Predict the 3D structure of the following.
Amino acid sequence: MNFIFVALGGALGAVMRYAISLIPVKTEFPLLTLVTNILGAILIGFVVGISEKNGNASSNGVLFWKTGVCGGFTTFSTFSLEAYKLFENKSYGLGGLYVTLSVCCCIVGIFMGKRLAALL
């Protein structure tokens, strides 16, 4: 049964990621992947915060949201490929900025998500 919750959440996360990729943004900088990863970090921080706050949080709900939705939504492999391409194209400044922003903003996103959960 756990696999069903993960699969359903993963499908929802993947569809959400695809929807964001359709936003018409014209830039060399992989902005939409960065935004997706930050939103995913906020969401997973929120889910963890809620599950920590409510010790009786549904394990199926946590599997659905944390493993399924967040796993299907965030884009670490895409992030890695885009960072590699920036460095390969000798866009070292953009590549470094992208990696730094992705890591730092996503850690801040976890913090924000947990803080949002604490407000409930």
Remarks:
- Residues 2-119 form one domain.
- The first helix runs from residue 2 to 21.
- The chain has one domain: 2-119.
